[in-house]
Design a protein that fits this description.
The complex is a heterotrimer of chains A (109), B (134) and C (340). Chain A contains three helices and five strands. Chain A is of the alpha/beta class and 109 residues long. Chain A has a single domain, classed as 2-Layer Sandwich (Transcription Regulator spoIIAA). In chain A, helix 1 packs parallel to helix 2. Classes of the chains: A alpha/beta (109), B alpha+beta (134), C alpha+beta (340).
């Protein structure tokens, strides 16, 4: 399974729409793109609607992005998390420190 | 006993070929076999490419060495480029080849018999010698 | 060089015999020659040259174009020769590194060794097996002056050597805490400060910390982003999830952890684990965790060490004897007061 990253940017805003799985193999490319975006844009959104699986390396990427966004005083948020992906943020307590909008209860094939 | 024979200025990529040509001519005259000639030419290429890529401008100097009965060729590559920060890193295998840049300095060291490298913010100087097999 | 020279003579003899007879047996010898050359680190350009020289000896009036073509071929082979030699060196280095990692893994095992406290109140079993050479899981026991038992299970996210370093740091931090300060909240607050200060971004740690009070049979616990642990209640035969809210260690330095507690009754069984933790599939099932719990339930009559060993064996077989992730399981069972 791969991770597809759709990248859309405006002046002060960038959004990454992800589809697929985030794991040790796909995380590095996500990290590159995401950190560059957080560095450059005041407001960054990552849409996880089509992410069916994520492991701890994915968390690592988002923590790095969070830290960088704080350093830069930029906004960073995750949107449309599948319930089970959200569970990971919930267990690890990251839902308290990363802004997360909408979780989806639904089937993904 | 040594004798300065010639030097080639490296400025354009084309100059690499000129340096190879000069080195090959000399090594032939000194009696190097065909494999050694090819090795010397490859070493010169690497040195000249380094100058061309990283320092933009420099010079390759050749000296014939007569330490009879040994005969050899000394090649000095000199530039006034930014210098090399981490010498042991560039001398490590896998450093340059991973980027597909070629054999790099470790390659030059292997191709030749003697090798020395000095680098600071003033520039870089590589001195290397190949002895002809009697 | 002399061996190369005698090899060259051999090569020439082989070549001329072959050109005369086209005999397969000679081709076989050629194959042996090439293996020998590899053993002696003879590079491809050298072989081409040997061939060229042999050919010139056998056919003294070799056509000029052919001679030229060999020079051309030698030239193109030089870089292959270099790549080959570099490959050899890198291979040796790899072997060296592997053995160094082996030594480091042994050291890690020694460093992180923790002994299971003996106490009449509870029976403790533990099993921790790394999926690869260096374990990314960690567990640690502390017994305070009153005989209360502290237990930590942790998962360092980010694997291999950096994770191992991080773990050693946690272990030494924990050992530096005074034996009278082993309340979960205090431990996690302190560890979080240590980890935040000392760990590179991108590496973080989940930890579940529990303290078993052997006098009141209260189990105090706190969690730093770790998956929930469980208590198999003797009375209901059901698992009860125990979890406390808390952020992963190392993300933010000023975090206060929540501490909860629950009463442990005779025959209750506490299960702490790290495996399958931070994974989730879209079908929502934590297959591994569920299965672990079922196996434990089926074997709760065994003693704690037997239970964890049994679960591990089952688990290993389930994964075709190839662990995908580090495996750590701690089981603590409150003894019945009659059995003391």
């Amino acid at each position: 399974m791969n991770l597809h990253i759709d990248d859309h940017q405006e002046d002060n805003y960038g959004i990454l729409k992800l589809s697929g799985e985030i794991d040790a193999y796909t995380a590095p490319q996500l990290k590159d793109k995401l950190l560059t975006l957080v560095e450059e844009k005041e407001s960054v959104e990552v849409d996880l609607t089509k992410v069916s699986y994520m492991d701890s390396t994915g968390l690592g990427v988002f923590i790095s992005a969070l830290k960088l966004s704080k350093e830069k005083d930029h906004n960073f948020k995750l949107t449309n998390l599948q319930e089970n992906v959200y569970r990971l943020f919930n267990i690890t307590g990251l839902n308290e420190v990363i802004s997360i909008e909408n979780t989806i209860k639904g089937e993904l094939s | 006993m040594k004798e300065t024979v010639s030097s080639v200025v490296i400025k354009k990529e084309w100059d690499i070929v000129g340096a190879r040509q000069a080195g090959r001519q000399l090594s032939q005259e000194l009696g190097f076999g065909s494999v050694d000639q090819a090795r010397i030419a490859t070493a010169i290429s690497e040195l000249a490419r380094n100058i061309y890529l990283y320092a933009k401008e420099g010079e390759i100097t050749f000296e014939e060495l007569y330490d009879l009965p040994k005969v050899g060729l000394k090649i000095i590559a000199k530039d006034k480029g930014p210098g090399i920060n981490d010498l042991s890193a560039v001398m490590e295998d896998g450093y340059s080849t991973s980027g597909g840049l070629g054999a790099g300095l470790p390659g030059v060291k292997r191709l030749m018999d003697e090798f020395d490298l000095v680098s600071d913010e003033e520039g870089t100087k590589v001195t290397t010698i190949k002895w002809a097999r009697p | 060089m002399s061996s190369l020279r005698s090899d060259m003579q051999d090569y020439k003899d082989l070549l001329s015999k072959y050109l005369e007879t086209k005999d397969e047996a000679i081709l076989y010898q050629a194959e042996q020659f090439s293996k020998q050359s590899i053993q002696q680190n003879i590079s491809p350009d050298e072989i081409v040259n040997v061939h060229y020289q042999a050919l010139k000896d056998i056919y003294p009036d070799l056509h000029e174009q052919i001679e030229g073509s060999f020079k051309f071929l030698i030239e193109t082979m030089i870089s292959y020769g270099l790549a080959y030699q570099e490959h050899q060196v890198l291979r040796e280095k790899q072997i060296e590194l592997k053995s160094e990692i082996g030594v480091a893994a042994n050291m890690q095992n020694t460093l992180l060794k923790t002994s299971v406290p003996k106490t009449h109140a509870i029976d403790i079993g533990v099993k921790s097996v790394p999926a690869r050479e260096m374990n990314g899981d960690y567990h640690h026991f502390i017994k305070d002056e009153q005989g209360n038992v502290g237990v930590a299970v942790a998962d360092v996210i980010g694997k291999g050597i950096p994770a191992a370093f991080c773990m050693s740091m946690i272990k030494f931090a924990m050992e530096s805490f005074s034996e009278n300060q082993i309340y979960p909240q205090w431990i996690l607050d302190s560890l979080n400060r240590v980890v935040s200060r000392n760990v590179e971004q991108g590496m973080f740690v989940t930890m579940f910390y529990g303290l078993y009070d052997v006098y009141t049979h209260q189990f105090y616990y706190a969690s730093a982003g770790h998956e929930p642990c469980f208590i198999l209640r003797n009375e209901t035969r059901e698992f009860e999830e125990i979890d406390a809210k808390g952020l992963l260690l190392g993300v933010e330095s000023a975090v206060k952890y929540e501490q909860l507690n629950t009463s442990i009754h005779e025959g209750d069984l506490i299960v702490l684990l790290t495996d399958g933790v931070t994974e989730c599939r879209v079908d929502g099932r934590f297959i591994e965790q569920e299965e672990v719990l079922n196996i434990i339930k089926e074997h709760e009559h065994l003693n704690s060490q037997e239970i964890v060993e049994y679960v591990f064996k089952y688990f290993e077989r389930l994964q075709d004897f190839q662990l995908r992730d580090d495996f750590t399981l701690v089981v603590m069972k409150r003894n019945s007061s009659l059995s003391v």
